[in-house]
Write a structure and sequence with these properties.
It is built from 27 helices and no strands. The chain is mainly alpha-helical. It starts with 5 loop residues before the first helix and ends in a 5-residue tail after the last helix. The longest helix has 108 residues. It is 73% helix and 0% strand.
Length: 766
């Protein structure tokens, strides 16, 4: 076995080693392995025996089935050949039938098309015959309805390829349209004559006596007929190409009925303003604009009463007004080259157009969505000249205001003196604000936000120019004779003017018009920024650009924020200069007072009653005069800031230049306290109920100087320790400083620091 199959031997040895291993006690398993192997061998032999006996029978059965299937295949092949022959024969006959049937179908289709063609021709002819009969019998409304059916039938042929049929139907429609329109126009014009149309100013009495009912019935009938007539598509195209200018294309054609109402006025307009008549003057655009406004006003009542019920759901007066406005726009477009040649005519025309537009909207409720004469002003060449003129006129007006002899005199807004004190608006400031307001009124009615923003930029530019002019003038003012001569040049009028301008701009910033402009400006800035980023990133298209622009930057603030900030800076600087001018005089007058012998004055016990120091009267007088001058020359809001700044500077000056520089005995301390409490602080009492709140440091210093000697010595020691220990450990330093502050608080000292209080106490002669 090992010689015949060594691999099998190795597998058996390997299996026995895995099962028994090196344990001799496991040899009894050899018997079990042998029995299992023997059982498997017997089972396999039994299965092989069964296979060898059953296989021949199964093979025979399979061969028999194969023979039967082969016979069936032969039969099917014969049937297939027979059917194939029959199919070819059938297909040949079917092809013959189909060829005959296709020719018959084509003939049927041709006959159907010819029938439809003839039917269309017959329909057009029948409608034409009925139309003719209706016109001959004066059945105008029936004729209009038949004509509209003819137009509808013609529209159905638009997709047809029968050019001759389309031309026949279209020519028929145009023929009947012209005939019907001409007949109705004549009848309408005869009826309008009976009504005495147009209702111009010479025959306004017509409105007081209504025409007879039969005349109004005819008017209503003919108006409805003309209103219902459908204009052929070709006629509509010709009407849309009436104006070769882009502005005129914005005007939609009115219905035939309204055109008949406008036609008599059109003839008058062309007669007066379209030829060589004296009324046709380029420098007098107000003549034809006022005429149009007058015509609209003359006919408004009649149209609203008699035409509007027939014109629903549209607005008859609006469409009637649009037709007349178109006359003015056509005239304006025609005169544009001449208008642009001369600035005077251009400026006058702009003003008249704006007045015309304002009157049109306020008096006749002409919608802003309708085209108007503003379209001419907003054309690029016209608008650029308009902006240039506005800038030039504004700068010229500014120069006139600034060099006027009465530029800086106050103007009274009303009869109230109190109101004048609150504002103190100068003539220059009032004129400048009125100029800005006039510019706003002019561009406020423009339809496009972009045009409004250009005017807003112009206003901001003018505001900055005005600020620079005031700054230059303020630099030329002198103050050396401020109190000696009240009429000497000073900057208080400039300050009042700035205050008025700032207040007005603050009010304007909250107006809906400027809030909306700010929103437009923010969106445009965001769009420009995102577009620049897109270009830098080589992005060809950003469909989300405008959406992003609306959400990128918050719409906070106002359009005037930047210029208001600049004006406020200048306002603060001018106010500082005014207060410093007053303070300079106070310092000069205070020198004798500061050099007084404060350390050798008699004790207060020697006086029955203290009085003002002789050397202090000049200083207090300078303060009083300065306050009076500030009050007389400044607006109330600015004066409040001015006297508060002056009080703060006087408080600081006396503390640093007097108290901390001189020595005080009991008499000097008492005298200083009396001067401050009874003379200095009351000067400001007429402007506030608690003037002492503005001199807290000075009051604290006077209190320290008048403390009893034992308390002064104890407080000096406490404060000295606090100041000396400030450089030691943090805990000890904080404790010492707290003790010093607590000691000061016990004596009523609330404002002075520990160091300043110690410095004041050291000026005391003990």
């Amino acid at each position: 076995m090992s010689e015949e199959n060594p691999d099998l031997q190795r597998k058996i040895v390997k299996a026995l080693n895995e099962e028994i291993g090196t344990d001799l006690k496991q040899l009894h398993k050899l018997k079990e392995l042998y029995d299992e192997t023997k059982a498997v061998q017997d089972n396999l032999r039994e299965k092989l025996s069964l296979v060898s006996t059953e296989a021949p029978t199964k093979v025979q059965n399979t061969l028999k089935e194969v023979e039967e299937l082969s016979q069936k295949l032969v039969t099917l092949e014969d049937q297939y050949s027979h059917l194939k022959i029959e199919a070819k024969s059938h297909l040949t006959s079917v092809d013959t039938f189909l060829s005959n049937f296709d020719s018959q179908l084509q003939e049927i289709e041709r006959l159907e098309l010819e029938f439809a063609y003839l039917k269309c021709v017959k329909t057009v002819e029948e409608l034409s015959e009925k139309l003719q009969h209706s016109l001959q019998s004066n059945q105008d409304m029936e004729a209009v309805e038949l004509y509209n059916k003819l137009v509808q039938h013609n529209c159905m042929l638009e997709q047809s390829q029968c050019d001759n049929l389309k031309k026949f139907a279209n020519d028929t429609v145009i023929f009947w349209f012209e005939l019907l329109k001409e007949k109705l126009r004549k009848e309408m014009q005869e009826t309008l004559k009976l009504i005495q149309w147009p209702l111009i100013s010479t025959n306004q009495e017509v409105l007081k006596t209504m025409p007879p009912p039969d005349v109004m019935s005819k008017f209503q009938l003919y108006f409805q007929c003309l209103e219902k007539i459908k204009i052929p598509p070709k006629q509509l195209e010709d009407a849309s190409n009436f104006g070769d200018h882009v502005i005129l294309s914005r005007f939609t054609s009115n219905s035939l009925a309204l055109q008949e109402l406008i036609y008599p006025l059109l003839k008058r307009f062309l007669y007066h303003f379209g030829g060589n008549r004296p009324t046709n003057r380029r420098d007098k655009p107000e003549w034809y604009m006022r005429q149009i406004l007058q015509w609209i006003g003359d006919h408004a009542e009649f149209i609203e009463t008699n035409v509007q019920p027939l014109y629903e759901p549209h607005n008859a007066l609006t469409d009637f007004s649009r037709g007349l406005v178109q006359l003015a726009v056509e005239k304006l477009v025609k005169d544009t080259p001449v208008i642009l040649e001369e600035d005077t005519i251009l400026a006058h025309t702009i003003g008249e157009v704006l007045n015309f537009e304002s009157e049109l909207r306020t008096s006749f409720s002409y919608p802003s969505s309708q085209p108007s004469a503003l379209l001419v002003l907003t054309q690029p060449q016209f608008f650029a000249r308009w902006i240039t003129l506005e800038r030039a006129f504004a700068v010229e007006k500014m120069d006139i205001l600034l060099i006027s002899d009465t530029a800086w005199t106050c103007v009274s807004v009303d009869d109230s003196l109190e109101a004048e004190d609150d504002v103190r608006l100068t003539e220059c400031g009032e004129g400048f604000l009125q100029m800005l307001l006039a510019i706003t009124d002019r561009y406020k009615i423009l339809p496009q936000p972009g045009h409004k923003l250009q005017f807003l930029d112009l206003q901001l530019e003018l505001l900055d120019e005005f600020r620079i002019r005031l700054l230059q003038l303020a630099g030329q003012s002198k103050f050396h004779e401020l109190f000696a001569n009240r009429s000497s040049p000073n900057i208080s009028p400039f300050l009042n003017t700035l205050t008025a301008v700032i207040n007005v701009l603050d009010d304007w910033a909250d107006l809906p018009f400027f809030v909306q402009l700010h929103s437009y400006k923010v969106q445009m800035e965001n769009v420009e920024r995102l577009a620049a980023e897109a270009i830098s990133n080589d992005e060809s298209s950003l469909p989300w650009l405008r959406t992003q622009a609306q959400t990128t930057k918050e719409e906070e603030g106002s359009v005037f924020d930047s210029i208001i900030e600049l004006l406020k800076r200048m306002q603060e600087d001018l106010l500082r200069r005014l207060v410093e001018a007053v303070m300079l005089e106070v310092k000069a007058k205070s020198q004798p007072y500061r050099l007084d012998k404060w350390g050798s004055l008699p004790s207060p016990d020697e006086f029955i009653q203290l009085s003002l120091s002789p050397t202090g009267s000049a200083m207090l007088q300078a303060i009083a005069i300065g306050l009076l001058w500030l009050k007389d020359s400044l607006a109330s809001t600015m004066f409040v800031e001015a006297w508060q700044k002056l009080a703060a500077q006087v408080n600081e000056f006396l503390l640093e230049e007097l108290i901390l520089q001189r020595q005080f005995n009991d008499g000097g301390a008492a005298q200083l306290s009396f001067d401050v409490q009874q003379n200095l602080i009351p000067l400001f009492g007429q402007y506030t109920t608690k003037p002492e709140n503005y001199f807290k440091e000075l009051k604290d210093a006077c209190t320290l100087l008048r403390l009893p000697r034992p308390i002064t010595l104890l407080l000096l020691e406490t404060l000295a320790i606090a100041v000396q220990d400030s450089d030691n450990t943090l805990v000890r330093s904080n404790r010492a400083i707290f003790n010093g502050k607590q000691a000061l608080k016990e004596q009523g000292i609330k404002k002075l620091s520990v160091e300043d209080a110690l410095s004041v106490l050291r000026r005391r002669i003990l």
